[in-house]
Specification:
mainly alpha, Arc Repressor Mutant, subunit A, elongated
Length: 148
């Protein structure tokens, strides 16, 4: 006789043991396994009440990991897609904007490491940083400060 399928609570805890999740993300993962979709909300409320599901920890973890490769705009967009509240977004935005030039400089150094010698190279480097979600101001500061 096969073992019964794991409960929603067990599935949620296994997912949270692997990494932090947003409420929306965890709900989407549990949805296909729920007999009654109405039972997911109270389960998530309970997990939040116990401190096992935390939006603040999720935001902190995601911004720390993504900061090594991406700028504030890209990270904030990803957080918005994952259903993070506006209050948490604005707190993350101020933290991300503070260190954006340093993060852009680190990404630039890893990718290019040398100063652009032509306008085409400068444009290519600027486009690369912009595509990674760094602000125009941060891109300008990185390329300008490296030239001096």
């Amino acid at each position: 006789m096969p073992a019964p399928p794991p409960s929603l609570r067990t599935r949620a805890l296994k997912a949270l043991a692997r990494r932090e999740h947003s409420r929306q993300e965890l709900q989407a993962k549990l949805q296909p396994h729920a007999e009654d979709p109405a039972e997911i909300g109270p389960l998530l409320d309970d997990l939040e009440k116990r401190g096992w599901l935390s939006e603040a920890r999720f935001v902190e973890q995601l911004t720390t990991v993504r900061r090594r490769r991406f700028g504030a705009a890209r990270i904030l967009h990803e957080l918005r897609e994952k259903g993070v509240s506006e209050a948490a977004l604005s707190a993350a935005q101020s933290r991300l904007r503070d260190g954006e030039v340093e993060a852009a400089r680190a990404v630039w150094k890893k990718k290019f490491g040398s100063l652009p010698t032509t306008l085409e190279q400068r444009a290519k480097q600027a486009r690369f940083l912009a595509s990674r979600g760094f602000s125009a101001e941060a891109v300008h500061k990185v390329l300008r400060s490296e030239e001096q």
